[in-house]
Amino acid sequence: MKTDRADILASLRNAGDYVSGQQLCERLGVSRTAVWKVIKQLKEEGYRIESVSNKGYLLVESPEDVLSKEEIVSRLTTKWAGRKLYCYTETGSTNNDAKRCGEEGDPHGTVVVADIQNTGKGRRGRAWKTLPGAALTFTILLRPVFPAERASMITLVMALAVAEAVEAALDGNIGDSAEKAAVGVNEDTAVRIKWPNDIIINRKKVCGILTEMTMTPELDEIQYLVVGVGINVNNESPQEFEEEIRDTATSLRIEKGCRLNRAALLQDVLCRFETHYQTFMETLTMSGLREAYQARLQGLDGEVRVLDPAGEYTGVSRGINDRGELIVERADGERVAVYAGEVSVRGLYGYV
Ligand code: ATP
Q1: Where are the domains of the chain?
Q2: Could you tell me the distance, in angstroms and rounded to a whole number, from the CA of residue 282 to the centre of ligand 1?
Q3: How far is the CA of 125 from the centre of ligand 1 (A)?
Q4: Which pLDDT tens digit goes with each residue over 313-346?
Q5: How far is Cα 130 from Cα 167, in angstroms, rounded to an integer?
Q6: Is 198 in the pocket of ligand 1 (CB under 6 A)?
Q7: Ligand 1 within 6 A of 232 CB?
Q8: CATH code 3.30.470.10 for 69-295
Q9: Ligand 1, atom 22: nearest CA belongs to which residue?
Q10: pLDDT tens digits, residue range 277-293?
Q11: Do the domains spanning 2-61 and 303-347 agree at the CATH topology level?
């Protein structure tokens, strides 16, 4: 029944016009009554569907932001990313769920999405906090055949996909809401990537990405990777964030001034990720993506502080190399290639 709903929704959405009940029955191999029941359910859930005799059904409007399996599947245009999909109302951590999928044999590209994530994690076990109904939280399971030292670049590949999708979703509208115009805030309006794994708008974090790797028992090959993404989408105001992140976090809604559809955003991120992943796989380096990544790099040619567990230092950020490492030029002119693993990068006087 679930798939029928997604298929019917997809048929209506893709047609953009009336689709007859007969066509739906034939295309999906279900009865007229089954179609009618699904349409009734969809209407109850807030889809505006017009039914006209002799013409059929027309999808007039979808609810503003539902993160249901049907809503996602009916939008999906990818080849493999998200083709197997688990959609939960609530979970602990989508990365942990995806690892379970990895153990249980789910295919490359399987995606786990959750409306509410209770114990999300950032790097080094730090908490990733979300509010019910506001975040797009998902993890993609990958089964790559490449050496383990290449895996950290996948975070950069995903960061690029998210940055582009966020930019498209905001459609150049960042920071021009009436509220912001009224207070006259002078903002940096680009969507940027804070190396390696954060997406930044107006110097604040809108998304975090965490890649985790599981090796085969012999420890000689990657068994699977999970790439978790948390995007603050529909948080209404900074006050909704916990105090400790209020000054450094933002959401797409805060920046754009209106709600966004998380299922549509997920589809766009997955599509872009699929394309970029293929480019990455051609060389197993960032060479084909370096320019696009670097064009969005926060703090390029600016002074940064490198928080290395082995000792903190400052330098000028000179972009990334083909291995995805950040090149930092120190005062004595020495260029250090910083590997993502345990390191964080900050602006000289604050978060960026
Ligand atoms: P760094 O920010 O030091 O470069 P990081 O980017 O790897 O490290 P993570 O460890 O991935 O950061 O993410 C956890 C951190 O993100 C938390 O310590 C907190 O400061 C911040 N954070 C947690 N939840 C959110 C959120 N919803 N929006 C923005 N920032 C958040």
Answers
A1: 2-61, 69-295, 303-347
A2: 31
A3: 10
A4: 999 999 999 999 999 999 999 999 999 877 889 9
A5: 21
A6: yes
A7: yes
A8: no
A9: 128
A10: 999 999 999 999 999 99
A11: no
Residue nearest to atom 13 of ligand 1 (CA): 122
Q: Among candidates 348, 342, 347, which has minimal Cα distance to 125? A: 342
Between CA 133 and CA 251 the distance in angstroms is 13
Nearest CA to ligand 1 atom 3: 344
CA angle at 346 for the pair 158 and 126, rounded to the nearest 5° = 65
Residue identifier of the C-alpha nearest atom 2 of ligand 1: 344
Looking at the CA of residue 130, tell me the nearest atom of ligand 1.
Answer: 27
Cα 100 to middle of ligand 1, angstroms: 24
Q: What is the CATH number of domain 2-61?
A: 1.10.10.10
**Residue whose CA is at the smallest distance from ligand 1 atom 9:** 122
Measured from the CB, is residue 249 less than 6 Å from ligand 1? yes
State which fold the 303-347 domain adopts: SH3 type barrels. (2.30.30)
Q: What is the pLDDT of residues 294-309, one digit of tens each?
A: 999 999 999 999 999 8
CB-based contacts of 178, cutoff 8 Å, min separation 6: 257
Read off the pTM.
0.89
CA of 317 to the centre of ligand 1 (A): 21
**Confidence label for 182 from pLDDT (cuts 50, 70 and 90):** very low
Strands 303-307 and 191-194: unpaired
